[in-house]
Design a protein that fits this description.
37% helix, single chain, binds nicotinamide-adenine-dinucleotide, 512 residues, 15 helices, 2 domains, Aldehyde Dehydrogenase, Chain A, domain 2, Aldehyde Dehydrogenase, Chain A, domain 1, globular, 20% strand
């Protein structure tokens, strides 16, 4: 693959970087990374050992003492240049993301665009790290808040967004004056290495020291656990499954560290009797089939008003029949493979559970066989199943293209009750042309998710808004809006420019 060479990638590569330098081991452990697209080896990546961990932390600590003192707009300018680096490699990076994850090329390019956008956003944000000024209750006093850099951020990311989620954290964190150590998913480390190479060039060209953006590719038990337990890392940003996130959250909490959690979703779209199906059907299909159902915001449950159930089901079956499954590097493929054979196994287990729990398969349900699918064994059919919301399998997030069709009767509150009756709370959407229904969905008694959309699907968030979800999704917020505040330490300052010492709340403490 030409794009691998163009990105400076080799067959054997170190997976440990201080930002500017790579650390190699002659006899270190390596991981072999294969593409789910065609089963071919992309690279052998050398994994970090215990001694690398300490070296990376010490280098990051040193870098922090310099980086935090650089004026924030100057930090923002560096991030702008890094963004330009990603911009000029967009096509190649997008192809790599597609080849390593299996997501269609349009989505691979979209992910790189998101990375570029977050660099632009961060550059702007670097001039807006503002604190609030308020009035003091005491005479001749001033009261305000300011934000300071926090330190080293440990960024642990999932396989399905191998670049963008790192960008949300590392770029915003960097303009806030933090340095970062990235542990990418061990299933998609090659995209991380490619991004790191682009960053390294910018750091070197601008005479910046090592340690601002570090990369540690290694086992979760060795590297991941160390990051979670390390008091020198005040903030862990963890993106992944609920189970792993629960472990991450409790480990960081045990040392009273700070964590941002971006965990699994179980996202629903409500189609009311007033829905415009010409909008709803394509949104549902993209939401359920995009990234082969492996987005945290994938549409997993479709809650359909009884009066439209048969029509929606028929239109979805027709749309699903037209889905082109194949090599995601081809512009005509709507859907590529799942990430690996374990994911295919989860898909099959979920199908068996649907049947055992009383559900009915409406479409799909097969692993694709024959050429070209046999090369990786990771291609499956997108699947529709008629179920009830309370089935245990429906309550879980199966990271595969399975869309559950759920019928509701009565008013929109019945649909909302079903939507909210899951443990996760990431993304939600309603399709309706009725203003009252839309407002009920958005009200305090409406959707309990971090993301609530009207007449657009559950996936495909813009970076300008804060991203994240409630309940078992973890409560974290990343990306735009005021998400930057989580990467800084907040300080409340009260200054006295008077000649007496009045105490707050009128407390008297007179000494002679
Ligand atoms: P995963 O939980 O298997 O792994 C996520 C990351 O955590 C990986 O880097 C992994 O190595 C690391 N990890 C796992 N156990 C660890 C431990 N004990 N200590 C330290 N690190 C550990 O998730 P995945 O399969 O890569 O990704 C899919 C999941 O991520 C889905 O549940 C999806 O919904 C979720 N996700 C959420 C968001 C979001 O923003 N809410 C975004 C993308 C993915």
């Amino acid at each position: 693959m030409e794009f691998l060479k163009d990105l400076g990638l080799k067959k054997i590569m170190p997976g440990i970087s201080t930002g500017t330098d790579w650390i190699t081991h002659k006899n270190g452990n390596t991981s072999t990374i294969c593409s789910p697209v065609d089963g071919q080896v992309i690279a052998h990546v050398q994994k970090a050992a215990a001694e690398d961990y300490d070296h990376i932390i010490q280098t990051a600590q040193k870098a922090f003492s310099l980086w935090r003192s650089l004026p924030a707009p100057q930090r923002g300018n560096i991030i702008r240049i890094i963004g330009d680096g990603f911009r000029s490699h967009k096509g190649k990076l997008g192809s790599l993301v597609t080849y390593e994850t299996g997501k269609p090329i349009q989505e691979g390019l979209g992910e790189v665009q998101e990375l570029i956008d977050i660099c632009d956003f961060s550059a702007g944000q670097s001039r807006m790290l503002y604190g609030m000024t308020t009035v003091s209750e005491r005479p001749s006093h001033r009261l305000f808040e300011q934000y300071h850099p926090l330190g080293i951020i440990g960024i642990i990311t999932a396989f399905n967004f191998p670049l963008a989620v790192w960008g949300w954290n590392a770029m915003i964190g960097a303009v806030c004056g933090d340095v970062s150590i990235w542990k990418p998913s061990s299933r998609t480390p090659v995209s991380a290495i490619a991004a790191q190479k682009i960053v390294a060039k910018v750091l070197q060209q601008n005479n910046l020291p090592e340690g601002i953006f570090s990369l540690l590719i290694g086992d979760r038990d060795l590297i991941g656990e160390r990051l979670l337990n390390d008091r020198r890392v005040p903030l862990i940003s963890f993106t992944g499954s609920v189970a792993a996130g629960r472990h991450a959250a409790t480990t960081v909490a045990a040392r009273l560290g700070r964590s941002i959690l971006e965990l699994g979703g179980n996202n629903a779209i409500i189609i009311t009797e007033h829905a415009d199906l010409s909008l709803a059907i394509p949104a549902v299909v993209f939401g359920a089939v995009g990234t082969a159902g492996q987005r945290c915001t994938t549409t997993r449950r479709l809650i359909i008003h009884d009066s439209l159930f048969a029509t929606v089901k028929k239109q979805l079956v027709r749309a699903y029949k037209s889905i082109q499954i194949g090599n995601p590097l081809s512009a005509t493929s709507h859907m590529g493979p799942l990430i690996d054979r374990n994911a295919v196994q989860s898909y099959l287990l979920a199908l068996a559970a649907i049947e055992n729990q009383g559900g009915t398969l409406v479409f799909g349900g097969k692993v694709l066989e024959g050429a070209p699918y046999d090369a990786s064994c990771c291609y499956v059919q997108p699947t529709l199943a008629e179920v009830q919301n309370h089935f245990p399998i429906v309550q879980e997030e199966t990271f595969a293209p399975i869309l559950y069709l759920i019928r509701y009767k009565g008013d929109v509150n019945q649909a909302l009750a079903l939507q909210n009756q899951v443990r996760q709370g990431l993304s939600s959407a309603i399709f309706t042309t009725d203003y009252r229904q839309a407002e009920i969905f958005l009200s305090a008694a409406g959707s309990d998710c971090g993301i609530a959309n009207i007449n657009i699907g559950t996936s495909g968030a813009e970076i300008g808004g804060a991203f994240g979800g409630e309940k078992e999704t973890g409560g974290g917020r990343e990306s735009g809006s005021d998400a930057w505040k989580a990467y800084m330490r907040r300080q409340t300052v009260t200054g006295n420019y008077g000649s007496s010492l009045p105490l707050a709340q009128g407390i008297r403490f007179d000494i002679s």
